[in-house]
Design brief:
This protein is mainly α and 213 residues long. It has twelve helices and two strands; from the N terminus they run H-H-H-H-H-H-E-E-H-H-H-H-H-H.
């Protein structure tokens, strides 16, 4: 992949990318706590599982009224096709309890208290089990609060290597490795004059053939 081809792909789908990012921002502006929590659950499910399978599982939980009120076993049963479904169901229930205030879900207010996307990511990583830097970045971007963050999944890493932004794809991503690659991606985004949020969706599109979440 060359920078020229990257820019051409960007111009081809720029309007769709901007619509998607605006949709994320609108979710924060008008969405309720249940909708914000659904995005957190989706990002919890994605490690080692396909994004569309994970979102379908979230939709099933919402439709059946289990996202907010379901037990751990009920939630695990609905995570069809999601790897480590029992462990992830445990994480979901634990996170749900953490965001409960006087018996009501209050995730939006808690996130709003955090000063910036970087502080918010650190808080999520250190306080919510099942959430690492990739998942926290993904969640914050999906609720319109983290366009400056990199979501370093396998598709993005492969594209960054193909563009010579990184020399190799790391087998594991420690915090220091994650932040180092994120900084390189940010520098590349500045170089090609494409924002981090737009670049992430663009590279996802190049890797998968579609723009999703």
């Amino acid at each position: 992949m060359t920078e020229r081809k990257l820019k051409q792909s960007y111009f081809d789908i720029r309007d769709e990318i901007k619509r998607r990012l605006n949709g994320f921002k609108k979710l924060w502006q008008t969405g309720g706590d249940d909708e914000i929590f659904a995005e957190l659950v989706f990002c919890m499910l994605t490690p080692q599982s396909k994004a569309k399978v994970c979102w379908r599982a979230v939709e099933n939980l919402i439709r059946k009224g289990l996202l907010i009120k379901g037990s751990e076993s009920q939630i695990a049963h609905e995570l069809v096709g999601v790897r480590f479904n029992r462990k992830k169901a445990e994480y979901i229930v634990e996170a749900r309890k953490q965001f409960m205030v006087d018996g009501r879900l209050s995730i939006k207010a808690r996130i709003a208290q955090l000063d910036n996307p970087f502080d918010a990511r650190e808080w999520l990583v250190h306080n919510i089990r099942g959430i690492g830097y990739k998942e926290a970045s993904h969640f914050l971007r999906n609720i319109g609060r983290g366009e400056e963050l990199a979501i370093l999944d396998r598709h993005i890493l492969r594209s960054l290597k193909a563009l010579d932004v990184i020399e190799e794809i790391p087998r594991t991503l420690s915090k220091s490795k994650y932040l180092k690659i994120e900084a390189k991606m940010r520098g590349f985004a500045d170089k090609v004059d494409i924002s981090m949020g737009e670049l992430d969706l663009l590279l996802w599109y190049i890797g998968t053939g579609e723009i999703f979440k």
